[in-house]
Automatic annotation (TrEMBL):
Keywords: Signal. It is found in: Secreted. PROSITE patterns: NODB. This is Polysaccharide deacetylase family protein. The lineage of its organism: Bacteria, Pseudomonadati, Pseudomonadota, Gammaproteobacteria, Alteromonadales. Gene3D superfamilies: Glycoside hydrolase/deacetylase.
Length: 348
């Protein structure tokens, strides 16, 4: 009997270690300022509070280190976090960088290289090269900050795909010329993508990052990796703590695969299967816009009716469930949907 207990405990420890080491959380910021749009901003004071919490409770690693370790199924420290910024704003250099240097944190800025040195709100190339020497890496946000799903008048699907892909590849070429390296990491502007675009980038060797929520693991979709927003209404440190401790939910049979919806769509049937013995599927809770939405469980398959109401913009369903073994930690799955206006436009 004692042998059985020892073997059982050894199995539990091994399983727990695997879950914790095959996991990371990526944060995304835009502005660190009190004079920029509230929805994408965090004040320097709150930002420093975030960084202090990370220093006390987490391991902050470079994005490249985390991506390569997960792709190669190599262990990460428990509670690994990556810090990223979208758009190369001046206030990152002025307000965020001194705080990040204070803690010795490496971070990544996804920039639009064609906008650098052209707008007063953006970094200069001189600043970019200075930051590059100080634990900062730079990656691709497209030459232009496009709504990538926006099609031009009478534009075919193939012409659209060629145009938005060119926006990425030309930006990568310019980054390589200016910085001397190419990460081939791309962050979707506005977090918007569809199956055709992400598959094209994957074929070209890119790892791509979105803006829906969730942790990442070796089993994640590296063509649209989730990141937790940490500004605006998401900057509260108490709610952010739960996200920083989250685990990537292992799922399969996810439908629909296509996140781009027609403006006429009013309801979507979202289904997925959970693949983990550390999860009790009956404890899954799903939310949209903060409201809990019902779901059904049949033969291990979760089914959720998502009410879109034909409302243009970006929608997402977040599902969480507690870990059986890691007390106080939750598996997290986020699934995005993108809806244009009746005129085929995409909202900022």
């Amino acid at each position: 009997m004692w042998k059985f207990i020892v073997l059982t405990l050894a199995y539990l420890v091994s399983t727990t270690n695997t879950q914790a080491s095959d996991n990371a959380v990526i944060l995304v910021y835009h502005h660190v300022s009190e004079d920029t749009p509230n929805s994408t901003s965090v004040s320097p004071r709150i930002f420093e509070q975030h960084m202090q919490y990370l220093a006390d409770n987490h391991t902050v690693l470079p994005l490249k280190t985390v991506i390569e370790k997960l792709q190669n199924q190599q262990a990460l420290p428990d509670k690994t976090v990556v810090i990223t910024f979208d758009d190369g704003y001046q206030n990152i250099h002025q307000n965020a960088h001194p705080i990040l240097q204070k803690f010795g944190f490496h971070y990544t800025i996804f920039i639009n290289p064609a906008l650098i040195d052209t707008l007063n709100s953006q970094l200069t190339w001189q600043q970019v090269k200075q930051l590059q020497k100080q634990n900062v890496s730079f990656a691709n946000h497209g030459n232009a900050h496009l709504h990538s799903l926006q099609k031009q008048t009478n534009e075919s699907k193939q012409d659209w795909l060629s145009r938005v892909t060119k926006n990425v590849t030309e930006a990568e070429q310019l980054l390589t010329e200016k910085l001397g390296y190419s990460l081939k990491y791309f962050a979707y502007p506005y977090g918007e993508f569809n199956q055709a675009f992400k598959q094209q980038l994957t074929q070209l060797g890119y790892v791509s990052f979105a803006q829906h929520s969730g942790a990442i693991a070796s089993h994640s979709d590296f063509s649209a990796l989730p990141r937790f927003p940490a500004a605006g209404i998401y900057s509260n440190i108490n709610t952010l703590k739960v996200k920083l401790n989250s685990l990537a939910m292992p799922v399969s049979k996810v439908l629909p695969q296509e996140p781009e919806l027609a403006s006429s769509i009013k309801q979507v049937d979202l289904t997925f299967q959970i693949n983990s013995d550390d999860i009790n599927p009956s404890q899954v809770a799903c939310f949209k816009s903060g409201d809990k939405i019902p779901h059904k469980l049949s033969d291990g398959l979760m089914s959720i009716k998502v009410d879109i109401k034909a409302k243009p913009g970006r929608h997402k369903v977040n599902c969480t469930v507690p870990s059986k073994q890691l007390k106080g930690r939750y598996y997290w799955l986020s699934h995005p949907f993108f809806v244009p206006t009746n005129q085929g436009k995409w909202l900022d």
